[in-house]
Amino acid sequence: MTASGPEELPIVSDEDVVRVRQAVRGYAQQVRLSLVDQTKLVTATSELARNTLVYGGGGSARIEVVTDNGREGIRASFQDEGPGIPDLTLALADGWSSGKGMGLGLSGARRLVDEFDLDTEVGRGTTVTVVKWKR
Amino acid sequence: MAGEAGHVHRLTELLRENADVLIGRWVESAAASTRGRSTSAELERDFRELFTAVLPVASGDGRDLSGNGYAEIRSLLEELSRTRARQNFSPAETASSVFALKEPVFQLVDEQNDQDLFRQVLGFSSLLDALGLWTFESYSRARESIIKEQSEQLLELTTPVVKLWEGVLAVPLVGTLDSARTQVVMEKLLEALVETGSEHAIIDITGVLAVDTQVAQHLLKTVVAARLMGAECTISGIRPQIAQTIVALGIEFGDIATKATLADALRHALRREGVDVVRRGDGVKR
Amino acid sequence: MERVPILKIGGVLLVSIQIDLHDQSVLALQEDLAERISATGAHGVVIDISAVEIVDSFIGRMFATIASISRLFDADTVVVGMRPAVAITLVELGLTLGGVRTALDLERGMRILRVLGQESGRIPAGDPTGLEWS
């Protein structure tokens, strides 16, 4: 798997969440994801960026184009140094939330992407990485 | 492409000097296997191009085929493979066009009776093997993309969104539904609702042979998505076997409108649109 | 922070979202709407999202919240113009709009509000369009 054009964006405010969304859309258009896939990816990253801000106390996003066997896709990682997630199974279950909202954030985002990877440690922080491949 | 730095590569020289003869014999031996699908003139043109591109790399053994030095010959072979794939050549036939250069070259080297040349021609043989394999691979890639193109065209053909009435669209689905196809249909139908300003959609599955959990889920999601957009979606033509599968799989259709036939679904949609269909009193056809 | 404008057409408040919403503007819109419904006594709210490219869970919940607020003031809410890609994504996300009414476009949305208003008697007889009423 090779990657190109990584871009790092801070997530410390509401406006940053919007900026991350717009950047992800730009990348998704660049590799010509279908409109539906673009929308799914942007929506998933919007959820994750908000999690980074609200639950992680801020952090950063990293967006890049990835290729694998001639197939192109977008990878987005969200990293924070917040409290971490104590119970993953619970956090990934539908309808559960550790803060505001209805808990669709993580489980919903996972359904919208092709690859979903969550790395968390209590007291150290959380990194969520998602990939959406071109169909 | 190490070769013997500083020295003239004997084999390359020999190939260059005898280019016309070699290309002639190469075309001759390859023409036998292409059985008239390519004319000798076409082969001659293609092979001359290949031959010219092979000369600068003839001292290599093709082990680093992905390197920059081989870029030109690689792209020529890719082009050849693509063309051949479209002309329905088999991958073996395509690769053997490359291998066919071996015989005339071996013959020529044999006539020279030169130890150095023998050594070099072994390397050259590996190069041709590598190039042949590359052809094989490019052929499969070309073939794959052709198949993908065709299945996409087929998808377009088999999933027409038709207008049944002002404000009523339908997609008659036929054959085997897989997840990818169902998803395409779903997107197309929803797009059509917006484009035509239609508030009713009918997904008719009379012609569908089987439904699995995933496909049923996609159908349900289409209905829910249509509802979010402010349209109503009816599923019609559920055959007894499929009804049994749906129940057995434990899929909940909930409050989604289902009708036995497309006609029932149309009548339902028309009624919702405020249209009543009545038979004239005398019942006489005109 | 950009605010979403709220227009009044007869007894209906029209919210046309033309910007990339961030969470603060979503909250501000909810507050503004509550005030406007209460101040105008509107019988309906139309939220036009035909220009909206994504609806995530936060924005999705806004529709349900606005509908609940409107209901407290005896007004109906219709969300109009949701794009297909957005609808598909919302379904995949697992988000329902909590029974909010939807319509394909603004015209149909206004028609729904008129019918609901007339049925419940909030639009007086003799005002078939519901537009003069305020």
Automatic annotation (TrEMBL), chain A:
Residues 36-135 form the Histidine kinase/HSP90-like ATPase domain. The keyword Repeat does not apply. Keywords: Kinase, Transferase. GO terms for molecular function: kinase activity. InterPro entries: HATPase_C_sf (IPR036890), HATPase_dom (IPR003594). Pfam families: HATPase_c (PF02518). This is Serine/threonine-protein kinase RsbT.
Automatic annotation (TrEMBL), chain B:
Residues 158-269 form the STAS domain. The keyword Phosphoprotein applies. PROSITE patterns: STAS. The keyword Phosphoprotein applies. It holds the Pfam family RsbRD_N. Signal peptide: none annotated. The lineage of its organism: Bacteria, Bacillati, Actinomycetota, Actinomycetes, Pseudonocardiales. Keywords: Phosphoprotein. This is RsbT co-antagonist protein RsbR. Transmembrane segments: none annotated.
From TrEMBL, chain C:
InterPro entries: Bact_StressResp_Reg, STAS_dom, STAS_dom_sf. PROSITE patterns: STAS (PS50801). This is RsbT antagonist protein RsbS. Residues 2-113 form the STAS domain. It comes from Umezawaea tangerina. It comes from the Bacteria. PANTHER family: RSBT ANTAGONIST PROTEIN RSBS (PTHR33745:SF1), RSBT ANTAGONIST PROTEIN RSBS-RELATED (PTHR33745). It holds the Pfam family STAS.
